[in-house]
Amino acid sequence: MDYRSSDSTAGTETAVGSLHIPGPRAEDRMPDTVTSAVKIVIVGGFGVGKTTMVGSVSEIRPLTTEETMTQAGIGVDDNYGSETKTATTVAMDFGRISITDELVLYLFGTPGQERFWFLWNGLFEGALGAVVLIDTRRLEVSFDVIGRLEERGVPFVIANNAFPDGPRYPNEELRNALDLDPHVPIVECDARRRASSRDVLMTLMRYLHEMALARA
């Protein structure tokens, strides 16, 4: 796969008929040293911080598909603990981060509201692994998310997004509450901070590497 095909017109315009479509910004252009890319999916319930994480860690301007929440969602969407949210992801978030000069991660954030979960099928195609963001105020919204990953056989790590008013639990209590296998990593993070989000992704990459070695 040519990972630079979409970046070849960086800083230029492409003519399509009478239209002139601007190319990517110069700062978003894929480095020439990149030889491979990995797809990672960031999942979780509504309002757990998926869009925030993609935006904080992406080295390019993230693509978001947030729409204003309306009264149509009342009684349909569970926004407990996120009552102040005014927008929600309806398709996906997308970002990119370089791990090394040769390897980049493509980040796809999924919609959190259950009525948009049918979009997950396409987003999970080709994904090497996933980050499950959890909110300790609403652990129950993570149960179905984790179940879907396990059904698909997608390796994942748990990232406990530490909200200021969220209760704190030892990792083993979280592991028991979420019914996780002993080997699934659990890390605490602040999705607003680039370094913290980057550390979560590095935890996932190390976990995937360990799994690959164990299968070898």
Short structural description:
By secondary structure, the protein is α/β, with parallel strands linked by helices. The protein contains five helices and ten strands, in the order E-E-E-H-E-E-E-E-H-E-H-E-H-E-H. Helix 1 (50-57) crosses helix 5 (194-215).
| Major sheet summary line | 6 strands, mixed
- List the uncertain runs: 1-10, 67-77
Order of helices and strands: EEEHEEEEHEHEHEH
Strand order of the largest sheet: 6-7-3-8-9-10
Helix content bin: 10-25%
> Mean of residue pLDDT?
79
Distance between the termini: 25 Å
* Structural category: alpha/beta
Bin the strand percentage. Answer: 15-25%
Number of helices: 5
Question: What is the CA-based Rg, rounded?
Answer: 18 Å
Shape: globular
**Count of beta strands:** 10
Explained architecture:
This protein is α/β, with parallel strands linked by helices and 216 residues long. It is built from 5 helices and 10 strands. Strand 9 (156-161), helix 4 and strand 10 (186-189) form a beta-alpha-beta unit. The longest helix has 22 residues, at 194-215. The model is unreliable at 1-10 and 67-77 (pLDDT under 50).
List keywords for this structure.
disordered N terminus, globular, two-stranded antiparallel ribbon, 216 residues, alpha/beta, 5 helices
